[in-house]
Amino acid sequence: MPVSYDSLRAVPLLQSIGDKELRRLASNLRERRVAAGSPIVTQGESAVAFFIILEGEAAVTIGGQQRATLKRGDFAGELALLDPAGPRTATVSASTDCVLAALSSWEFKPFVLEHPAVAWELLVTLARRQRMAQLDATGAGHAAPA
């Protein structure tokens, strides 16, 4: 089932896209429903799609340890599509029932190349995630108890 234009208009990553292009993207995306507790992507596996959360929340775990929570408008799966030689670096599981927009791996690259503002937002998000991972690894990302 295609994804609705209205659900995409609220996604921060897609704010720079004009109405005509967003409608075209909506027709290329597929809606996917994932039950609470089910995986969306699994660490170590190969990538087949990029996902945007349209409804619900998901937990990001690395090595079984929760690292983040994703909510409406957030996305997952971009890293494994940007570097297809490597496996997924995290597991993302639905914390609640989720509705996702899925973009196939073969449609992801052309979409990003056609939309430099989206590419930039992906880079900003990757930089934030990298910084948080480094802070977590050194313990600097955790506040000392008061």
Rg measurement, Å: 15 Å
SSE succession:
HHEEEEEEHEEHH
* Percentage of residues in DSSP E strands: 25-35%
Strand order of the largest sheet: 1-8-3-6
Distinct helical segment count: 5
Summarize the structure.
This protein is of the alpha+beta class and 146 residues long. The protein is 36% helix and 27% strand.
What does this structure look like?
The chain has 146 residues and is an alpha+beta fold. It has five helices and eight strands. It has helices at 5-9, 19-28, 78-82, 105-114, 116-138, and strands at residues 30-34, 39-41, 49-55, 58-62, 65-70, 75-76, 91-94, 98-104. The strands form two sheets. Strands 1-8-3-6 form a four-stranded antiparallel beta sheet. A four-stranded antiparallel beta sheet has the order 2-7-4-5, with no helix packed on it. Strand 4 (58-62) and strand 5 (65-70) form a beta hairpin.
List the helices and strands and how they pair.
Elements: H1 5-9, H2 19-28, E1 30-34, E2 39-41, E3 49-55, E4 58-62, E5 65-70, E6 75-76, H3 78-82, E7 91-94, E8 98-104, H4 105-114, H5 116-138
Antiparallel strand pairs: 1-8, 2-7, 3-6, 3-8, 4-5, 4-7
